[in-house]
Amino acid sequence: MLMDPKLNGYLTRALNHEMAAVQLYLTQSTLCQYWGLQQAADQFRHESEDELGHAQRLIGRMLSLGLLPRATQLPAVSACRSLKDMLVADWHLEAEAIRLYDEASQYAARIRDEESFKLFTELLLEEREHLESLEKWLAELEQSGNGG
Predict the structure, then answer these.
(1) Domain CATH number, residue 9
(2) pTM
């Protein structure tokens, strides 16, 4: 299969996004440890491991297409002063991933790249689950009156 430049762009954007998510979740995990929020720290570490798994799958797809991975555009981690701030930032990150994977899966379907379509669709579903989990966590935080 000849490499499609637009597909290459989606794969690279996806890898950048996943590596940025790993960086963000590890930072949040460490901050929560400093704040004495061990359960939140553990959850963020788990999220970072999920995102690292996504990155690994993307790298595998890139290598199978003869591409060398290059995640080079990692944004700075935003400063958050509370657990709620972290969850809101994470919600936006996951919503961005959903938009990216939805668009990428549609493109892969158009060019009839079944393997990339399958990967992007799986990642889309997993990111939707992450978003739902964040929404639930935010709601629980609000209900407990501990939004700060």
Answers:
(1) 1.20.1260.10
(2) 0.91
